[in-house]
Amino acid sequence: MDRNRERLAQNDPDVFSALVGEEDRQRRGIELIPSENYTYPEVLAALGSVFTNKYSEGYPGRRYYGGQEFTDQIENLARERACALFRCEHANVQPLSGSPMNQAVYLAFLKPGDPILSMDLSHGGHLTHGAPVSHMGKIFNFVRYRTHPEEEGRIDFGEVRELALAARPKIVLAGYTSYPRDYDYAEFKKIADEIDAITMADVSHIGGLIAGGALRNPFDYGFDIVTTTTHKSLRGPRGGMVLCKKKFAKTIDQSVFPGLQGGPHMNTIAAIAIALGKAQAPEFSEYAMTCVSNARALARTLISQGASLVTGGTDNHMLVLDSVQSFGINGRVAEETLDQVAITTNKQIIPDDPNPPLRPSGIRIGTPAATTRGFREVEMERLGHWIVEALAAHQDAAALERIRREVEQLCSGFPVPGL
Ligand SMILES: *Cc1c(COP(=O)(O)O)cnc(C)c1O
After folding, report:
1. Is this prediction's pTM over 0.90?
2. Which end of the chain is more exposed for a tag (fewer CB within 10 A), N or C?
C-alpha cells in the first residue's frame, strides 16, 4: 500500500472504508453502464498528484498566476495530443466536465431565446441538449428532432431539414446519450449549410470509439465544433474537451475562461494528457473495435433469446433493451434485478416511452468498461445469457443468487486496472 493511502487509512477510516467498499464493488461485479469505464492506473496517479494544488487561470503562456512552467507543459501536451487524435485544429481541455463543456459552446454563440436544433431527450438526446429541467433548456430555444419507428428507429433527415428551415437554428447539434447507431454527419452538415448554421457534434459517449477509428469522425465531414467527455469510452479522468476549427478557437477559449469557469483542474488535465497519449497507441484502436464487436455479440445473444432491442441492434458500444416488451418489467425493476446479480446497467427511457423517467420501459447496456477489463465475445455471450435468465426469473431469489455467484466467478478472472 502506498504511503498516501496508508495515511488515509489511519487518519480518516470513515472515508477509507467507503473507498475500500467501492473498490470491492468494482472488482466483484461487471460494469455495463455505457457511459462508464475503468480508467488507467497512470490516470489515477495523476489525479491524486500535486497538480491539484496549482491555480492556472488563463491558457499556456498567458496565465494570471506565476509558477506555470510545468502546468503549461501539461496543458500544451494535452491540446497537441487531442488535435492529433481527432484531426482538428484547436482543442480546449479545460471544461470541468461534459455539462460545462456544452454550456461553453452554447454561451459562445447564442443569445437568450436563440434557436438551436438537437436530438429529443426521449429519443436519445442528452440532458444538456436542452432538457426543460436544465437551465440551458430555459435560456435557449431548443428545437428537437426525433427517431422514427417506420425508419427502424433511425433519424429522419427529411424531418431534420424541415425543422431547420422553419426554426433557422444558429447551431445544428448532432449528439446522443442513448442511441445505438452511428450518425450520418454529412447529412447534418448539408442541412446546416443551407441555413448557414454552425455544426456541433457532442460525441461524449463515443469519443474513444472515434479516436480509435471504430466510428465516423465529424471533422471528416466538415463539422465546426466537436465536444467530448474524457471519462467515457476515452477511458480518462472525468472532464470535457471542446475541439474546433481554428476560426472558432478564440471565441471558444474565451467562453470557457473567463466566460464560464475559473481555475482549470490541472491534475485532471495531466490525466487527460495521459489518456490521450494512450489513445494514440495501436492497441487503443483495437480496444475501440472490440467495444463495437462486443456490443454486437451481446446484441446477437440477447436477440437470439427473444429480447427486443431499440433499432433492432447496434453499430456502437451500446444497446437499448425494451424490458417491458421483452420481459414484462419496467426499467427500474430490470436495473434492480441485474444489480442483484452483480451486473450494473441503468434504466432508460425509450423512444415515445409511455412510462415516466423513474420507471421507464428499458435499460441501457454498454461495453466500454467490460472491454477494458478484457471481456471478449465469449464473455459477452455468457453475460447475455445471464441477463436474460435473471430478467426472466426476477422473482426467483435462489436463481438470482446462483447467477450472481456465476457472474462474480467470471469477474474474478478479469482484474480491474489499478486494483
Ligand atoms: C455524459 C454526457 C454529457 C455530460 O457529461 P457530464 O460529465 O456528466 O456533465 C454531455 N453530453 C453527452 C452526449 C453525454 O453523453
Report:
1. yes
2. N
